[in-house]
Amino acid sequence: EAGVAQSPRYKIIEKRQSVAFWCNPISGHATLYWYQQILGQGPKLLIQFQNNGVVDDSQLPKDRFSAERLKGVDSTLKIQPAKLEDSAVYLCASSFESGPVYGYTFGSGTRLTVV
Amino acid sequence: QKEVEQDPGPLSVPEGAIVSLNCTYSNSAFQYFMWYRQYSRKGPELLMYTYSSGNKEDGRFTAQVDKSSKYISLFIRDSQPSDSATYLCAMSKGGGNKLTFGTGTQLKVEL
After folding, report:
1. How many Å apart are CA A57 and CA A69, to the nearest integer?
2. Chain B residues within 8 Å of chain A (Cβ atoms)
3. pLDDT of A1 over the 80 cut
4. Alpha helix ranges (H) inside A7-71
5. What is the mean pLDDT of the segment spanning A53-80?
6. Which of A88, A108, A112, B83 has its CA 20 to 30 A from that of B16?
7. pLDDT digits (tens, 9 = 90+) for B43-91
8. Across the interface, do B43 and A93 touch by the CB < 8 Å criterion?
9. From CA A47, how far away is CA B96, in angstroms rounded?
10. Number of separate helices (H) and strands (E) present in chain B
11. CA atoms lying within 13 Å on the CB side of residue A40
């Protein structure tokens, strides 16, 4: 079984620029999550999709972050404009059923540095 | 106060030692408790999960939950250098609810 694919692996941008991350979940996984992991902290959920629909985006800074999941498969997360505090690893995860007890599979993440 | 507290370490132990990793939490609504392992520059991977209080064993790993004390533990027996990683506790209020993670404890097992 192929894992969760994310790209790019690394990205360096200047503040106020925009950036986009891409995620391809495991085939057949209906639920997709984006997490933000700041250095020295645990991952924080940004948004959860169930197929095409958003289940939870309560911690997504909607003034600058947006996410979509096309046709219930791939997903993109965008930041516009970026701030210094957005420097973090952005992790995508997927699961067959909704809910963490079913075992997320995480991708390796995109490491974003905002300078 | 954070909902989930975890000592960040680093924790350094000799090969073969028993390792104890712990988390405390403040929200009594948490029902599901997980431990994830994260190698450097990789995503977290699920090690174990338990529901409510009690113990669960899987090979060299044992997870314990004490809901009365709001305290969870992960024990690693006969630790190996390959166990060197960051260990994250995580918990959820229900099966379909989001995970709340601790900050992670960095473990190094030395030869």
Report:
1. 13
2. 4, 6, 8, 32, 34, 41-46, 49, 51, 88, 90, 92, 94-99, 101-104
3. no
4. none
5. 94
6. A108
7. 999 999 888 888 999 999 999 999 999 999 999 999 999 999 999 999 9
8. yes
9. 14
10. 0, 11
11. 4
Q: How many CA atoms lie within 13 A of B52 on its CB side?
A: 0
Take residue B71 and report the two structure tokens written for it: 């305290």
For residue A106, what are its two tokens? 């995480």
Q: In whole angstroms, how far apart are CA B93 and each of A101, B19, B33, B67, B97?
A: 11, 27, 9, 13, 6
Residues in contact with B53: Cβ distance below 8 Å, sequence separation at least 6, in sequence order: B65, B66, B67, B68
Chain A with chain B: Cβ pairs closer than 8 A: 64
**What gap in Å lies between CA A92 and CA A13, rounded to an integer?**
20
Please answer yes or no on whether B98 and A109 come within 8 Å at the CB atom. no
Residues found in chain B: 111
